[in-house]
Design a protein that fits this description.
By secondary structure, the protein is an all-alpha fold. It is built from 14 helices and no strands.
């Protein structure tokens, strides 16, 4: 399970990432507080999220093409330094104005467009190919733990010190990442093939993805399940305030259970090391059925009992998607393929949250979960059928439940 931690470079990166993720979620909490204090508008919060996501859609492909050609470490050091400066900008007096907050959000999105694909390539260079699946799973665990710790500590500090302290802590956390990057031993990193200038850029990346049917099917499945099966912050609130008749404490309990499930899912996957398409399809089908069942939960505790495996399965599903994308594609194209994954993820978030919200408003919490669960279940079965066709097999239970499908895309 912890084989990646034997690598010194990965240990440095894991520790820095845990601290940085915690700082990031502190800033998210503080920024939401500032926006609500200044504008009193949830719409303004939505605009900030949109400004952070939009650049990924527009620039992500160029970021992927750049990631395939340049050394990762200098690029990451530069991105972390800029993020630290942006966090400090939020401390300045003029930053309380809407324009400053929107500008920081937009610039953060631009950085993410280029940083995301570089991070994906860099992370895979820290461990052996055989340990990559466990490394990605442990990364999911650390991200979940950092989110829990950051939100918990931030919730305490914001009432004592105000939001500015949280922005400063986040800025310092980026300096920790820079220190870890500079302390790594380049001789122990795995060399990844880089793209040459003659191979083309963005267009070549799109052409490559379009020639990979398995990758296209996985991305389509990721979009559907990500859109209708990942926005539990919306559906949980609708269930608690509606048919379950819970309180704010009930919502807090469910959020905690969801976080615990996410950590558990990462640990299970890291321990098994099995990131096959069989696991992807089986997990996608299982969490979709459980999502449908959660709409029938009689009370908060019953709902929590279903949320736990759903959260664990969601982490397994997303991590396996990332793992297969990295293992089953050409190293020289990996940045561009990872950029495509980022674009799909952004699209699923932009489309999914309003869609689930509309379903909750129209059908209620129970109806929304059941309809969304039914759609994602059908999508999982359709994905299995499509993969079976690509592999030249007939669709049967072995495709989803028993027989490993490990051939490269």
């Amino acid at each position: 399970m912890f084989a990646p931690l034997r690598e010194r470079n990965y240990r440095l990166w894991a520790a820095a990432d845990l601290v940085s993720v915690g700082g990031t979620w502190m800033q998210v909490l503080a920024l939401n507080w500032v926006i609500l204090s200044v504008t009193g508008s949830a719409t303004a919060m939505g605009a900030v999220v949109m400004l952070q996501s939009l650049p990924v859609l527009l620039l992500g492909s160029w970021g992927g093409a750049l990631a395939d050609r340049i050394p990762a470490r200098p690029m990451l050091v530069a991105c972390q330094a800029i993020r630290a400066l942006l966090a400090l900008v939020l401390v300045l007096p003029f930053a309380s104005g809407n324009w400053a907050i929107y500008a920081v959000a937009l610039l953060s999105g631009v950085i993410s467009s280029f940083e995301g694909p570089v991070l994906g390539r860099f992370g895979s260079s820290l461990v052996s190919r055989e340990a990559l699946a466990s490394a990605l799973a442990l990364g999911s665990v650390l991200s979940s733990a950092g989110r829990i710790g950051g939100m918990a500590l931030g919730g305490v500090l914001i009432g004592i010190t105000g939001p500015s302290t949280l922005f400063i802590i986040n800025a310092v956390s980026y300096l920790g990442v820079i220190g870890a990057l500079l302390a790594m031993r380049t001789g122990e990193m795995r060399d990844l093939t880089r793209a040459s200038s003659s191979e083309g850029g963005v267009i070549a990346g799109f052409r490559y993805v379009l020639r990979q049917p398995v990758v296209l099917i996985v991305l389509a499945l990721s979009f559907v399940l990500g859109s209708l099966g990942r926005n539990y912050q919306v559906s949980m609130a609708a269930m608690v305030s509606g048919p379950l008749g819970g309180s704010s404490g009930s919502y807090g309990l469910l959020s905690t259970v969801f976080a615990v499930g996410a950590v558990a899912g990462g640990l299970v996957l890291a321990g098994s090391g099995k990131s096959t398409l069989r696991v992807l399809l089986g997990t996608g089908f299982l969490i979709s059925v459980l999502q449908f069942a959660s709409g029938l939960a009689p009370n908060v505790l019953g709902f929590a009992a279903l949320i736990l495996p759903i959260a664990a399965g969601a982490v397994v599903f997303d991590t396996v998607v990332s793992t297969r994308i990295q293992l089953d594609t050409d190293e020289a194209m990996r940045g561009r393929v990872l950029a495509t994954v980022g674009i799909v993820s952004s699209l699923s978030g932009i489309f999914g949250a309003p869609a689930v919200g509309w379903l909750c408003d129209t059908l209620g919490g129970r109806g929304a979960l059941m309809v969304a669960g039914a759609i994602t279940t059908v999508a999982a079965i359709a994905g299995a059928a499509a993969l079976a066709k690509v592999k030249g097999r007939s669709l049967n239970l072995n495709v989803v439940l028993r027989r490993p499908v490990e051939q490269p895309a």
